[in-house]
Amino acid sequence: MVIKRYQRPQMAQIWGDENKYQAWLDVEIAVDRAWNQLGEIPDADLEKIEAHASFKVADILAMEKITKHDVVAFTRTVSQSLGPEKKWIHFGVTSTDVVDTAYGYLLKQANEILRADLQQLMRVVAQKARQYKNTVMIGRTHGVHAEPTTFGLVLANWYSELKRDQERFEHAAKGVEAGKISGAVGTFANIAPQAEALVCQELGLTAQEISTQVLPRDLHAEYIMTMALIAASIERFALEVRHLQRTEVREVEEFFAAGQKGSSAMPHKRNPIGSENVTGLARVIKGHVFTALEDIELWHERDISHSSAERIILPDTTELLDYMLHRFTKIIEELTVFPDKMEADLNVTHGLIYSQRVMLKLIEAGLSREAAYDLVQPKTAQVWAEQGDFRTLLEADPQVTDRLSRSDLDDAFDYHWHLRHVDEIFHRVGLE
Asked: How many domains does the chain have?
């Protein structure tokens, strides 16, 4: 299970033994209510079950040492809190009816937290995107300076990805918020389909249209894969923060609190530890995808090879993603941004970032694309080699100046050209 360092209390409580067994009991009582509505269980017996059915975790665990079966241990412990009406506990159902439906119920609780987490991160990213909408910075491809962009566009790109994450999340969440009360091999031989519908309605779940003894595990695999995609998004964003905080760049920096220490040996260190932390946790979640996919293939109507794995990956994935979303939201909320350094870094390559604009102007002036490219590229190579000024080299070449005026070059070397569609992009993303 996830170590407490990466648990937040609200999510940890959902997956604790007390809440797990309470979910099992909620399912059992919902089944009895359904039987009552179908005329099988008398009102008096249901009232006693509703009033008195209870358990203690320690008693269940002690019973399990004898039964070697957790659901039998649970039902026998609950039965000890009842009188003759205990005969209706677990009536007509099998263990997986309870466990799988309870998983849907627990995941529904977890999803409420994750949904709020995701929405909060989106709100913060949107606010920061608007704040830095026109904050110019260098765009990089392959880690190398390319052309100007804005920090707002970087964040708007994140926001757009988070919208896709949100859409995938809602679909996958609906899939696992499911129940099945269909008996030993899913035939409803010992309980009516109407009972399943009543139970799922009471618990706020969707009755799966067909099941074996278990809910189909492609639902859970899709869910874990969706969690992994969200984790991968956070990892991608965190990687950008980590790069931009490098000493040679230092365009952003994670908030560094008074009294915080970056290194046990080097007092000057300020490291992007939060972004590195969520990067590592994303790797754990992505590793769960393989397990979830393997859990799909069960023998015939069921085996329990998935059970042990799910006891780990379902709580751990939701707990880790909850932690990651919360922590990265705080990182972005408190992020220190250095706009002056961003603008200054545009000049690191001595004007090379405007090479495409120069080439396109030469094409507009009459050169072929090949001729324009071959005229410009040697000058860029000279700048790389000698660290001279790109525009100075252009102005010294009659092949350029015969075609481009000073105002043409002023326009080519003006970063505002690259930002003229920022408003339109923000509109497309939904960040007007």
From this structure: 2
